[in-house]
Specification:
Blueprint lengths: L25 H17 L4 H12 L16 E3 L7 E3 L3 H4 L12 H6 L4 H4 L2 H10 L4 H8 L2 H15 L11 H11 L43 H6 L10 H22 L2
Antiparallel strand pairs: 1-2
The structure holds iron/sulfur cluster (2 copies).
Length: 266
């Protein structure tokens, strides 16, 4: 599969620590990336220059959500329009030297790491995620690292539209917008929600751990027809999300997807 990290339409920086902060709202993350990008643009393109910038940026006092997971100060915007994020220490960004040893890991580790989504997603699913999140790395990183969510969302749309969702269907702008809105559920969850980090819940053998919503404990007699999506986004009291409100939102966005699909492909 083509790597998920830098696709033609969008890029991801999740494993460089993009979301590992208490204040992980879209504006806060954008401001952080812009600050780092400006600082690194002023740094000499040498190991000494980048190491000093990395230490200085790292000392800004990031309030990380998972202290044991590293946050790399060398992740920033790759383009002036701030639509693409990536490693500012990579030779393609520096224009020559590989300065990734100055970051949170080593160049060797950065080069060789591929998150589990690379094994769990098909190329078609990966392409659908990239096209639905085109130009929006904040959303893409949340979606592409949560394989069960992406699969459940695509499966639910297919069930309602009575057709498998394929990459070619995203040429229809209305359907692409609706699918993007469905996937954006990932960024609209209650602060601290488990659902934001679904993909990184893994069992000891590295396979995803099944999570369940205890509907009975929530006073419901039956489960939800959208259980797979709701489970991925953490629709339980522990997550801080409201099950009924989230279920209604999932239904509305799925129905919008199905309507847009049928309108474009009758
Ligand atoms: S989290 Fe996965 S897709 Fe994102 S940059 Fe890291 S390896 Fe690439
Ligand atoms: S140096 Fe490594 S961890 Fe840091 S931004 Fe680059 S790829 Fe990510």
């Amino acid at each position: 599969m083509e790597p998920l990290c830098q696709r033609a339409q969008v890029s991801c920086g999740a494993c460089c620590g993009l979301y590992n902060r208490r204040e992980l709202s879209r504006p806060a993350v954008h401001a952080l990336l812009a600050r780092r990008t400006a600082a690194l643009a002023r740094a000499p393109r040498t190991a000494e220059g980048f190491r000093a910038a990395s230490i200085s940026l790292g000392a800004e006092g990031e309030d990380s959500l998972f202290p044991s997971v590293r946050v790399c100060p060398l992740l920033g915007f790759l383009d002036a329009a701030e639509t693409r994020i990536g490693c500012l220490a990579h030779p393609l960004a520096t224009g020559g030297p590989d300065l990734r040893d100055c970051g949170a890991y080593t160049a060797h580790i950065c080069e060789g790491f591929f998150c589990p989504s690379h094994a769990w997603l098909s190329e078609e699913e990966a392409a659908l995620a990239a096209e639905a999140c085109a130009g929006d790395p904040y959303l893409y990183g949340l979606v592409v690292t949560d394989v069960p969510f992406l699969k459940a969302a695509l499966g639910a749309v297919a069930a309602l539209a009575a057709a498998k969702v394929e990459r070619r269907h995203l040429a229809a702008a209305g359907f692409r917008r609706s699918l993007s809105r469905l996937l954006a559920l990932k960024e609209e969850l209650a602060p601290g929600s488990d659902g934001l980090f679904g993909a990184f819940r893994a069992a000891a053998d590295g396979e995803p751990l099944a999570r369940t919503i205890d509907y009975t404990a929530l006073g419901r007699e039956a489960g939800s027809p959208y259980d797979a999506i709701l489970t991925c986004v953490g629709a339980d009291p522990r997550s801080g999300n409201d099950l009924d409100a989230l279920e209604g939102e999932v239904r509305r966005r799925l129905e919008a997807c199905a309507a847009a699909f049928t309108a474009a492909f009758p």
